[in-house]
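Quick entry between incubations.
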Amino acid sequence: MDSKEFDETYRRETTSEGRADYPKAKSSEYSTSKECNMVNSSMSALQSEFESRHGVDWSIIENEYEKNGYYIVENLLKEEEVELLLSETIEIGRGKRGFVKGMENIGNQNKNNEYEEDIFSQLLAIHHPHKVSSTIRNNFMTHPRIREILSHLIGPNIKSMQSMLFIKPAGKPGQAWHQDEYYIPTRDASLTGVWIALDDATIENGCLWVRPGSHKDKIIYETAPHGSYDFDSGTHLINTPNDNDEGIPCEVKRGSAIIFNGYLHHRSLPNRARKGTYRRALVNHYLNANSMLPWDCDGTISPTRDMRDIILVNGIDPYAWKGTENITSAFLRAETAKTNDPNRGNRQFF
Ligand SMILES: O=C(O)CCC(=O)C(=O)O
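Done. Structure below.
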């Protein structure tokens, strides 16, 4: 299914032709409060529809999330949506969707007939793919089910500031224990990751691990070099009350999502599965749109009180009067565990 067909499927599902109670347009298109109210009332309808379809009791989900700092949503995406994301990933990897900084160094810019494996085997992760892919921007960052769930966990007003597309072919490292809110600070501790598996994620291929409940004290902990080639980026958490907690692996099927709190300690291990396989995942980060976003984009822009390169995902943006900016752009993650990495010397990213 290409992106046009996808849009059409969603249009049918989200209008009176299909599931009448899904919002008709994407929330980023809502600018007046009347339209926003429409989104919010659609959300309630959506909730009841979801509840009757899946017997969801939102208070159970909210309590679980509050207690553990994460929640697994099975089958968040349908199989054809996963397929669409994977074919989009190949096009991004070929350099067909636009310039991805760092890709030129590994010869992946403008490739036509490259085998999938040749394209993917070198890529750990692409940051901000939504900057080159309208499919990711319009269909997946603002996906109706993500909006539905986050409106319960974050609140009705939601914005997003980044996406990451992990490819993680066999042999690539994991990410050591860290807290996302250290890297992307919010003013109200509302940072939330939505980690969507595009392959079945297993212990062997480097699934996400979490320390349940480690988000609760809302403390950002110290970090120090981990000194391990198992992990990308230089540091891991130290001197936390959870240092001895090995955590639990979140093995999830493709299409399922792990929603996790920005203070939650989490990590992943290297992909130790057989050559030619991947552990692909799309990870988007969200926060309550009522919070300003004092994020310096990992040191790449001057300190700011409110980074405005955001996408309104649901409800209203109380800071809409500031307008938005175009600051971030797509880039290949610098792999710090790889000595000959062309990006070496750049800042390290989590
Ligand atoms: O997917 C992974 O391997 C790590 C993801 C992660 O740590 C994150 O999204 O913050």
